[in-house]
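Example record

Each entry pairs one chain with its bound ligand, FE3-S4 cluster.
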Amino acid sequence: MQLTEQEQKMLDGAEGYAVRKSMEILVALGEIYGAKRLIKVGSVQVSGVSYNNLGDAGLEFLDELAKDGKVRVLTTLNPAGMDLENWRNLGISPEFAEKQNLVIKAFEKMGILISCTCTPYLIGNLPIFGEHVAWSESSAVTFANSVIGAKTNKEGGPSALAAAFVGKTPCYGLHLDENRVPDVHVEVKAELTKLSDWGALGYAVGKKAENKIPYLTGIKEADLDELKSFCASVVTYGSKPLFYIKGITPDSEHQPTPKEKVSIEQADIKNAYDSINDQVDDIELVCVGCPHCSINEIAKVAQLLECKKVAEGTEFWIATSRTAKQLADKRGYTQIIEAAGAKFACDTCMAVAPLKGRFKSLATTSAKGCFYSRQNLMKTKMGSIEECVQAAVTGKWSN
Ligand code: F3S
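Structure tokens for the complex follow.
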């Protein structure tokens, strides 16, 4: 890989430990993937924030970098393992909270915004069309590439952090237009009637796309919440972190329709639900907000929960960014939601909080949420926001 004089100096250690380490990571990645040079990035999203995933070794690694590392571009953070303010309310232990706070301190020292959300595009980290960024967190990466039309590979936590310290990333993969051409045409014949259908669609497309870039036709309309749900699901279950929906996502009209073709029928959507849903009736945890709830979704939950009570023995979490929660406070949604006994889970989510063994069953709107919750040994049910609220107030899944 060709380095500029300044980049070579960075690699030689002229700008300190964190920059040298970062350059080593970026150069190694670039060489593995055949990048010819580094390119500037407009922003970074860093994953690997939960102490539950990092452990002490990860914390040590971050502390070392934080000694002299400062980010050079707008850098936001993925969800942490707990609500940074109300962790007690979510049943997090003081020991865990202490370690998680040390992780956050290290990121803060580096100059990173402690945003703790997987929807950075809703809170101010919003690239423009065609902009190169270095994001980690698969749903956010897919949203950036597909819905915004920015360009990013699916970075890991360390490579995203390295890009933040250097302000650059190796130019390979989805940074190059020739690698952004769709390779499978997915004709969607199924009708999508509720938010979770987009998670089911993502499952079905992901399985059929098998690490290819899908080009979807047959979809007439989609809103932001549906697209963010689809982004999380399609990449979790199989496709590359980029898709096109004809007439809806940017650049879709300029892409060639791929020769390879598959279709998604109503039966594929049903099969997706059958695969994602387990046999379980009693619901111990209901969680909406994977990816993190928009203010629109919070408003809907508040409307459905008005004058209702969450069932005893069931917890209802609304996972969102602190920024969205602040808007919810102002609009009075928080009061309605909390009066019903539901809880905001700001800064965190069901996948990265230390939940293994704590709840036996989960109801959610999210296919990705089900995927990760199974790893936390939960039986899962996926459905609409209405079905999730119903599960929260009855403690049961009703179909
Ligand atoms: Fe976000 Fe957690 Fe889902 S990081 S996409 S809420 S698994």
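The first helix runs from residue 5 to 12.
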